Amino acid sequence: MTDTELDAVRARYDRQLRRAAPADPGTSVERDGPVVRQTGGPDDWNGVLWSDLDDTTADAAIAAQRHHFAARGLAFEWKTYAHDRPADLADRLRAAGFVPEPPESLMVARASDLAAEPEPPAGVRLATVSGPAGVELTVRVHAEVFGTPAERLRHRLRAHLARDPDALVLVVALAGETPVSAARLELPAGTDFAGLWGGGTLPAWRGRGVYRALVARRAALAAARGFRYLQVDASDRSSPILSRLGFATLSTTTPYVREP
User: Residue 100 in 3-state DSSP?
Assistant: First the structure.
């Protein structure tokens, strides 16, 4: 993509997935002045999706969100992007007691460019899974690879499948009957962006093309559903692979977490 195209895609991403973000199942998304936030229960994702701040409004907005989530006893995340304003937003969040987590690259690609028949390594097959058994397979891999709290992820996946099953696809890579990698595809209605999440592979199976096969499978599913773009919050481990596949970097995103 050219720089002009990336600027247009970034603006569309901000408009569709931040300013007018669809709520996760069981949560609510609301606008509080210059801030868009999502609020749910303790096992849901709670946090700030978008803000339109400047030097004169940032501190008050940060204090207001701290009060909102603290009153509910919820930890929450302020998901910042490198193109957010003011330029010192990260410093202001740290001063307010937020703790940064590792930054990730926000990367995008055209779904149709990557939609191809996946080629997993010999001895591995890809399976689209659902229901409690599919959730457990996904949670099992993610807990081992990422150290993700199993109960929280299980809650989120079950809620999503129960309330909006068409907007979530779970894909697992199996060696025999053993799950060696798992990923999910989120398909938020009314947007151009399908989200690639997870993609965690057990250490013994890395470097064999499992992750690339999972990307291809999900790209094909997204393209078939009419989604124009794929978007990923990519770690340092996955971003080089995604770059080789044709993904471009839109921005850098850093979560800032505040405990209640």
Answer: strand
User: DSSP states of 103-144 as a string?
Assistant: PEEEEEEEHHHH-----PPTTEEEEEE-HHHHHHHHHHHHHH
Tell me the pLDDT tens digit for each residue of 44-95.
999 999 999 999 999 999 999 999 999 999 999 999 999 999 999 999 999 9
Please state, as a whole number, how many other Cβ atoms lie within 10 Å of the Cβ of residue 254.
18
* 240 CB neighbour count, 10 Å cutoff: 10
Angle between helices 131-146 and 150-163 (to 10 degrees): 150
Question: pTM of the prediction?
Answer: 0.93
pLDDT tens digits along 22-41: 999 899 999 999 999 999 99
Residue bearing tokens 């907007």: 167
